[in-house]
Each structure stands twice: as structure tokens, then as C-alpha cells.
Specification:
alpha/beta, Rossmann fold, three-stranded antiparallel beta sheet, binds fructose -6-phosphate
């Protein structure tokens, strides 16, 4: 695990965007694993700027997002599908049919999960996976648990995650209680992983991930067993290392 600490949230975003840009330069047909939440927004802003300057080309790339709320349609402003279009896809030249977000409206979630894993495998697997981290150490929506889950699956969100995500909704009771998420196994299958954390409220999760036991109680701790993980932090998130 390679850890880099930067002076500001903006620099974390710039550094992450540079890693994505290098990946796309090396392989324009890259399969990108993408995340939502507040943390990757500066990265997406930097990627849009690099695209506008003609330095990054997404025309042959594909993307797979980590997760989606159950029960929210693509048009719902709090859906991750909507977020990704608003924050990134609508501003770059990625093909409309090359972006994938698990469906929160699937009739058959079991089939949706299996189909999502199969699509990623068919695409050749994820080349570069972007991750944020929850205050409880979750990655995607893999919450503290007794075990690590392999593939895409449906989860019940913990009270702390619902409270953390409440800020995007009008009230807490509007936050969906279930989500469809890539499993830890699917995340670990990526060839390279880029974990971002910014802000003091992520410091404990980062300390436990980097220095604690490798345990499903801190799902991100498993990343220490991956051969190619880069962790980009601001000073606040790194403050307990
Ligand atoms: C989002 C995701 C989540 C977030 C995490 C941190 O697709 O998978 O694991 O990365 O909850 O969220 P923020 O960045 O909002 O603090």
C-alpha cells in the first residue's frame, strides 16, 4: 500500500485525476471503476478540466460504478446514476452505453447482481478502481460485518451510513435503507485501486485501515493484501497515522 499525503482536498483530487489520466493514456480502452460521495468530486472536476484541455480522452473507456440505492430510479436526483452524470459523464466524451451503474430498480436483484459481475468480467475486469471510505471503514456499501463478501449483492445500510448520507436528502426517512453494491471480492479483483480520504472525520477509518487488524469489521483493511493500492489523503485524514 503506497500512501501519499497532500496539503489540500484539491491536491488529492489533482493527484487522483493524474493517475486516471495516466491510465487512460497507457490504455485508452481502460475499464474504470468509479465511486460516488463527496470525496471524488474534486477528482471528477479535475478530470473534466483535463478533458477540456484535450489531455484526457474517454471515448474508448468503459466505467462501472460501485453501488446504487435500492428503490431510486435514474431520474431521482439522489440516485448515484444521476450523481455520476451530473458530476462527470455529462461533461466528458465517454460513450452513453459505456457507463454502468447497478440498477436500484431491478425487478430481480439476484439477476441484477449476477449480471453486473458478468458484465465486468466480460469487459476484462476493472483496470483502475476509485474508492472512498466510510467513517466506519466501509468500501462501496460493504459495511462492518462478520465476513468479506465476494460479488455484487444487496445490503442493508447501517444507521451510521444512513445518517452520514442524510445530507443529500431532504430528511433521514427519505434515505433508502438498502443498496446494491459491488462486493469486496469484486473490488479486490481490480488491477489497481486508488483509495481517497479527506477530512478529519475519516482519520480513524484510515488509521484502522492502514495500521489495525485486517478484519471485516473494517472492510477497507483488506486492501492491505492487494498488490497495487495507492492511498491519497489530505493532512486531516492522515492525522492519526
Ligand atoms: C460511494 C461509496 C461509499 C463512499 C463512502 C464515503 O460510491 O461507495 O463507500 O465512498 O461512503 O463517502 P463520502 O465520500 O461522501 O464521504
Amino acid at each position: 500500500m503506497e500512501i501519499k499525503v497532500f496539503d489540500s482536498v484539491q491536491k488529492v483530487g489533482q493527484a487522483a485525476a493524474m493517475i486516471f489520466a495516466a491510465q487512460l493514456m497507457k490504455n485508452p480502452r481502460s475499464v474504470l471503476g468509479l465511486a460516488t460521495g463527496s470525496t471524488p468530486i474534486p477528482t471528477y472536476q479535475q478530470l473534466i478540466a483535463l478533458y477540456q484541455e484535450g489531455l484526457v480522452d474517454f471515448s474508448q473507456a468503459q466505467s462501472y460504478n460501485l453501488d446504487e440505492y435500492c428503490g431510486l430510479s435514474h431520474e431521482h436526483v439522489c440516485s448515484y446514476y444521476y450523481f455520476m452524470h451530473e458530476q462527470l459523464f455529462d461533461h466528458i466524451n465517454i460513450a452513453k452505453d459505456a457507463v454502468h451503474v447497478p440498477s436500484g430498480m431491478a425487478q430481480d436483484f439476484d439477476a441484477e447482481c449476477k449480471g453486473y459481475d458478468a458484465a465486468i468480467a466480460k469487459a476484462g475486469g476493472v483496470d483502475l478502481q476509485l474508492l472512498g471510505i466510510g467513517r466506519n471503514g466501509h468500501i462501496a456499501f460493504n459495511e462492518p460485518d462478520a465476513c468479506f463478501t465476494h460479488g455484487t449483492h444487496v445490503v442493508s445500510l447501517t444507521k451510521s451510513t444512513i445518517q452520514a448520507n442524510r445530507r443529500f436528502f431532504d430528511s433521514e426517512d427519505q434515505v433508502p435503507t438498502r443498496a446494491i453494491t459491488m462486493g469486496v471480492g469484486s473490488i479486490m479483483a481490480a488491477r489497481q485501486i486508488l483509495l481517497l480520504a479527506t477530512g478529519e472525520d475519516k482519520a480513524e477509518a484510515i488509521r484502522d485501515t492502514v495500521k489495525g487488524d485486517i478484519t471485516p469489521q473494517v472492510q477497507a483493511s483488506i486492501l492491505r493484501t492487494h498488490p497495487n493500492v495507492v492511498v491519497l489523503l489530505d493532512r486531516e485524514a492522515a492525522s492519526l497515522l
